[in-house]
């Protein structure tokens, strides 16, 4: 192995990585290039990326269509403020998103990141209530096991006990939490699972503005896949009690769960929809919050007559150009066939983990494969074990999971799942 690059030594002393410490920090691996499904390290080794750069690089790296889109946009402009100005890329991206998302989501607000998209959704719900004179309706109802981002509004609707933000509970708004839907995606449906949520909605109806949740797939809160009938029931409860439904599809949008949007598994449309991550194919940061006309026009008809949010880099032209190209790549490909192929390979490849004593569960849905352990992993040693096998996976808590790019080959899938089985089998 070659000597540590000078910049990496500086990184270790001065750069604060996500969910990391500056005191004896855990290992990081220096990347000097990426192409297809592979990351190239500074020492020349290549790793198959099973993380899709935190679930966003669905087309892999250095895709010629996305590269061309970015270069082409640079010939015109990289960015222009969106206050008082407009550009074609944002309008055409909005047109596509309105066309492909669940019916009725006719208005698009662009944001910088998934967390900000959730903040925007919450502010829309609250400003909608204020516009209707329902200022007492400021609480959100959600389910345990959820994750919606790291900003303050988003943290407040993450699981306050098992989530990552309990340190901040004393300063976060207190919202209402129902039990996690515990009927798995493929299990027999039991309508009684909705009882607690309905009772909470009824009891708090005078102070609730919306229900917010991740449709079908709970991501960073536990990688849990719940039954579509639960989501359909949530839509009915919202209608019954006059609540808005906010669907956080930041992790699930653009095919990851086997449907273009996870809401489609239940055949429902939310009132507000959050998108991000794969929106640009992992090239640039961009997110979007879509909303129906009832919410949008109610906000705009009341004081102050405008929606009170405006990010500096909203609708960045480079990001919009990349997003348009990425979404078209999805729509013009056999994305559903590819995701089905990946799901089949993950089910087969991870099946041996079911017999391991340290494993609590194995579950797959779409291009997501999860091995849930009985004990948390050691994040100082397990990355080395995967890198030694030529793959990049980043477990957390008790979860070893894979969410590869859609272009991953069968051979690469085999290597990814074999590495997961081997590493998990060696855990105590």
Protein described:
By secondary structure, the chain is of the alpha/beta class. The protein has two domains: 6-62 and 334-425, Alpha-Beta Complex (Aspartate Aminotransferase, domain 1); 76-331, Type I PLP-dependent aspartate aminotransferase-like (Major domain) (Aspartate Aminotransferase, domain 2, 3-Layer(aba) Sandwich). The chain is built from 13 helices and 16 strands. It has helices at 6-14, 52-55, 64-74, 88-100, 114-131, 152-155, 195-203, 228-241, 293-301, 317-331, 335-350, 382-387, 410-425, and strands at 31-35, 38-41, 46-49, 107-111, 139-143, 176-178, 208-213, 217-218, 224-225, 244-248, 272-275, 287-291, 359-365, 368-373, 391-392, 399-402. It has a seven-stranded mixed sheet with strand order 4-12-11-10-7-5-6, sandwiched between helices. The model has no long low-confidence stretch (mean pLDDT 97).
How would you describe this structure in keywords?
428 residues; alpha/beta; Aspartate Aminotransferase, domain 1; Aspartate Aminotransferase, domain 2; 7-stranded mixed sheet; 4-stranded mixed sheet; 13 helices; 16 strands; globular
């Amino acid at each position: 192995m070659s000597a540590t690059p000078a910049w990496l030594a500086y990184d270790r002393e001065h750069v604060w990585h996500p969910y990391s410490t500056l005191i004896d920090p855990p290992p990081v691996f220096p990347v000097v290039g990426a192409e297809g499904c592979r990351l190239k390290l500074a020492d020349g080794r290549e790793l198959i990326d099973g993380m899709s750069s935190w679930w966003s690089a669905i087309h892999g790296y250095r895709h010629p269509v996305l590269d061309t889109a970015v270069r082409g946009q640079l010939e015109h402009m990289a960015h222009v403020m969106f206050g008082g100005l407009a550009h074609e890329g944002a309008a055409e991206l909005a047109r596509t998103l309105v066309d492909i998302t669940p019916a009725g989501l006719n208005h698009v607000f662009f944001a910088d990141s998934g967390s900000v998209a959730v903040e925007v959704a919450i502010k829309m719900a609250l400003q909608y209530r204020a516009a209707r004179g329902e200022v007492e309706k400021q609480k959100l109802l959600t389910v345990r096991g959820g994750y919606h981002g790291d900003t303050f509004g988003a943290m407040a609707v993450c699981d306050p006990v098992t989530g990552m933000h309990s340190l901040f509970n004393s300063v976060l708004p207190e919202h209402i939490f129902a039990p996690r839907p515990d009927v798995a995606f493929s299990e027999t449906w039991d309508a009684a699972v909705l009882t607690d949520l309905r009772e909470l909605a009824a009891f708090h109806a005078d102070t609730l503005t919306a229900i917010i949740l991740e449709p079908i797939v709970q991501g960073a809160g536990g990688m849990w896949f719940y039954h579509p009938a639960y989501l359909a029931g949530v839509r009915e409860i919202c209608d019954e009690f006059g609540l808005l439904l906010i669907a956080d599809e930041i992790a699930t949008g653009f095919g990851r769960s086997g449907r273009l949007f996870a809401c489609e598994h239940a055949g429902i449309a939310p009132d507000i929809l959050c998108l991000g991550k794969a929106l640009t194919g992992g090239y640039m940061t961009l997110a979007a919050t879509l909303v129906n006309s009832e919410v949008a026009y109610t906000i705009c008809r009341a004081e102050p007559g405008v929606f009170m949010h405006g990010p500096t880099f909203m609708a960045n032209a480079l990001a919009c150009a990349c997003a348009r190209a990425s979404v078209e790549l999805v729509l013009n490909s056999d994305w559903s066939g590819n995701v089905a192929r990946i799901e089949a390979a993950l089910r087969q490849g991870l099946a041996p983990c079911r017999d391991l004593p340290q494993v609590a569960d194995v579950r797959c849905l779409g291009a997501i494969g999860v091995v849930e352990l009985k004990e948390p992993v050691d994040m100082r040693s397990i990355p080395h074990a995967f890198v030694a096998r030529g793959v990049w996976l980043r477990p957390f808590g008790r979860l070893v999971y894979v969410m590869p790019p859609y272009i991953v080959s069968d051979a690469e899938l085999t290597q990814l799942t074999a590495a997961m089985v081997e590493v998990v089998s060696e855990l105590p």
